[in-house]
Write a structure and sequence with these properties.
FAD/NAD(P)-binding domain; 2 domains; 5-stranded parallel beta sheet
């Protein structure tokens, strides 16, 4: 009996599990390794600070999903990969396999002096709740929101959630009558923040900040954070709350393996999602470094596309064939503002955006539909 191991229960891991169960022989064992049998829907974290979501809305138990798709969950944490992928090493043992999919996500660059004085919705529920509690306790002051990238890995940046929280907080503070006493400011070392979304999107985002009276501090390298505010190479500005998403980097456990790695510590893969030089070992989601344009996003939608591709090629590998399917490069996101939204779409040949009040409801509807498959 063939055995497939999936490492990670995020977007890529779960999409691959579902697809593989449909594509491989019925008797094939599929095991998924992750610390807990749950899925955290990260895109919804932007709505926790304003009370639109609770942790229970976004933390989904996976026991029923695993039963439905006949996936065996192994509650362990990966610590290494050996034998060109045929052995997964965890904190509790070793697991042999005939094919492997790695979908463990990425880590963040947290080396900036004083970064402990900041919070990030991309860090998880704890930080999202801390942001909400701080804002609820503020009678006046300034909230500074920003993000940075990884200089060694152009695609390793996650700015969308920061834009959404920025605009969402502005809407929410206005609706609750507090915007006049609580100022918002945006900062980024990039002179064109959000440039992965395309030039028109950058202009739109900056124009929206100006319309909402949100000052910006752009194009200057960040030096440090403190309880008093943010310091860059050319500026210093106050903040009672700093919400900052640093650049992404490869997961710590990857560095100790012989997996081929990019400058930012991500696993190098080809267009078929197979690890370079490692037959039968595939990658999906944020942990991979993929060939393609430098604007190629690290987002749940991309992880789903890569997982589908990897599943096809794993099925072919187990049948003794060379998988040839290549993943589609596509950026799709809705920059939400609580009462409206802007759809941004980008491929190697197309790039457009659409603004519509109904897009906030559309984003909520998509969330419900997406999570229904796991409930």
């Amino acid at each position: 009996m063939k055995r497939i191991i999936i490492v990670g229960s995020g977007f890529g891991g779960l999409a691959a599990a579902r697809a593989l169960r449909e594509k491989v022989a019925k008797e094939t064992e599929i095991a998924l390794i992750s610390p807990r049998p749950e899925f955290l829907y990260y895109p919804g974290l932007i709505w926790i600070p304003t009370g639109l979501r609770s942790p229970a809305d976004l933390r989904i138990p996976l026991e029923s999903f695993f039963r439905k798709h006949r996936i065996r969950h192994i509650p362990e944490t990966v610590t290494g990969i050996e034998d060109q992928g045929r052995t997964v090493v965890t904190d509790k043992g070793r697991h042999a396999n005939d094919a492997l999919l790695i979908a463990t996500g990425a880590a963040t660059l947290r080396k900036l002096p004083g970064i402990e004085h900041s919070r990030s919705v991309c860090q998880g529920i704890e930080d999202a709740l801390a942001i909400r509690e701080k804002i609820e306790s503020m009678e006046s002051g300034t909230i500074a929101l920003g993000f940075a990238g990884n200089p060694q890995e152009p695609s390793a940046v996650r700015g969308g959630p920061v834009f959404e929280l920025l605009f969402g907080l502005d809407t929410w503070l206005r609706k609750t009558g507090r915007r006049g006493k609580i100022a918002l400011t945006f900062f980024s070392p990039s002179p064109e923040p959000g440039n992965r979304l395309g030039p028109k999107a950058v202009r739109n985002l900056l124009a929206e900040m100006a319309r909402r009276n949100i000052p910006t501090h752009l194009g200057s390298k960040l030096k440090s954070f403190s309880p008093e505010g943010v310091t860059t190479e050319t500026d210093q500005f106050p903040a009672d709350l700093i919400v900052f998403t640093p650049g992404l980097r490869g997961a710590d456990w990857v560095a100790s393996t012989s997996l081929p790695q990019s400058p930012g510590g991500f696993i190098k893969t080809g267009k078929t999602c197979q690890v370079e030089g490692w037959a039968g070992t595939f990658v999906a989601g944020d942990c991979g470094a993929y060939p393609g344009p430098d604007w190629m996003p690290k987002q749940g939608h991309s992880a789903d596309l890569q997982a589908e591709t990897a599943a096809d090629n794993i099925a072919a590998f187990l049948e003794g064939r060379q998988g040839t399917r290549e993943f589609r490069v596509e950026l799709v996101c809705v920059v939400d503002s609580l009462d409206s939204g802007t759809l941004v779409y980008r491929t190697p040949t197309r790039n457009f955006l659409i603004r519509n009040p109904l897009l906030h409801n559309a984003k909520s509807f998509f969330e419900r539909r997406y999570l229904a498959r796991f409930r």
